[in-house]
Design brief:
12% strand, eight-stranded mixed β-sheet
């Protein structure tokens, strides 16, 4: 039985599928440099703008946290030109900034968006970026030169956590004799972020949504610790497959991660079999509600009812093809196998027969169907 594990994952092998969907280092570097520019710029202008809007008592210095796929290491490179890498960069302000302003909540949220867009505009114009102002849950910054954007969701968190954070930083700054501004530039670290409680997300329509993005990160990172790194890789494969088949839309990344985790079975050094198992399991899950109580009580399956059978058919078809490739491919005839994988799974899967080896374990040998070949014809012959 052919073993396609190294086609999907092989350390230090740039051709394997995991590497082919990993963001290129120059693009990752440019994206994170843009993120740092956003942080430094907002640190200089937000205190002034909040004071202008709410008076000296409302003056606030923002805190920042990278969240989403970059926080749990599942970000993939775009599959199509129309797709983009997404970096979620949360901005946090103390809740008193809004409560003490006297603004009703439905007015405070749009004001938050206006302050943030006003703050970002000089930087966006300077860098040649673009502002996208039609997102309900964030301010989006389109980065020039790469297929990527930064989403800036706007949060408020209780003052007590901010006070402890400021005091801790002031103490460390004094002890190390570093400049307060330089110290303030550091982002919220993992422990400080977990000290935040009752986080609320501003919505562009004026509402405030209870939201705790760390719950997804905590849940998934804990799941990876329990099941191993293969789970993270398979989730990335699922996202890569999704991006190959849907230039926009399709099942959400979190939905795929939840389904994969809830149906997980690991296969040591066999990412191909682990992916096959998940594809065979999650189709029926995608037809109904999908819950993950460790994150929240919401239904994470937001696929429209009329589209759910299309998504199930996608996973079922991929499972059938991958199973056929693994069980029936011949080592001397692998081109057809790669054609099937590239057409059904993702065109970024490499054509690399040298990365396929023979799985000679007893279980694999028993499962490997023998080749059917015509029996050699023997004709009688006589000597002499």
């Amino acid at each position: 039985m052919p073993n396609f594990h190294s086609v999907f994952e092989k350390r230090m092998e740039p051709r394997c599928y995991r590497q082919s969907i990993t963001p290129a280092e120059p693009d990752r570097k440019q994206l994170f440099e843009a993120k740092d520019k956003v942080r430094r710029h907002l640190l200089t202008v937000i205190p002034q703008l909040t004071e202008e809007a709410f008076g000296k008592e409302g003056r606030a210095t923002p805190k920042f946290y990278v969240q989403g796929s970059w926080a749990y290491d599942t970000c993939n490179a775009p599959c199509h030109d129309s797709q983009e890498m997404d970096l979620d960069y949360g901005v946090y302000l103390p809740v008193s900034t809004w409560e003490d302003s006297g603004l009703p909540p439905q007015t405070a949220a749009p004001v938050y968006f206006k302050i943030m867009e006003r703050a970002l505009m000089p930087l966006i114009q300077k860098e040649g970026w673009a502002l996208v102002d039609d997102k309900d849950t964030c301010v989006r910054i389109q980065i020039k030169g790469i297929n990527a954007h930064i989403d800036v969701p706007l949060y408020v968190a209780p003052d007590a956590e901010f006070k402890r954070l400021v005091e801790a930083r002031a103490h460390l700054a004094k002890a190390s004799m570093t400049a307060d501004m330089a110290f303030a530039e550091s982002e919220i670290d993992e422990q400080q972020w977990h000290d935040f409680e009752k986080i609320a997300l501003a919505m562009r329509d004026g509402s405030w949504k209870p939201s705790d993005p760390r719950k997804v990160s905590d849940w998934f990172n804990t799941s990876v610790q329990r099941h191993g790194g293969q789970l993270r890789r398979v989730c990335r494969y699922l996202k890569g497959m999704r991006d190959f088949h849907w230039t926009a839309g399709g099942p959400s990344s979190v939905l795929l991660m939840i389904c994969a985790t809830q149906s997980w079975q690991g296969f040591e050094d066999r990412d191909d079999l682990a992916l096959l198992h998940i594809l065979e399991e999650i189709g029926p899950m995608l037809l109904g509600p999908v819950y993950c109580p460790e994150i929240s009580d919401e239904d994470f399956n937001r696929i429209k009812e009329i589209e759910r059978h299309v998504v199930k058919n996608w996973t079922d078809t991929a499972a059938v093809v991958l199973k056929d490739v693994i069980n029936n491919s011949r080592m001397h005839q692998l081109q057809e196998a790669f054609d099937k994988l590239q057409f059904t799974i993702d065109h970024r899967i490499p054509t690399a027969p040298e990365l396929v080896c023979v799985d000679s374990t007893p279980a694999s040998i028993r499962a490997y169907a023998p080749a059917i070949v015509p029996q050699k014809r023997h004709e009688e012959s006589r000597a002499g």
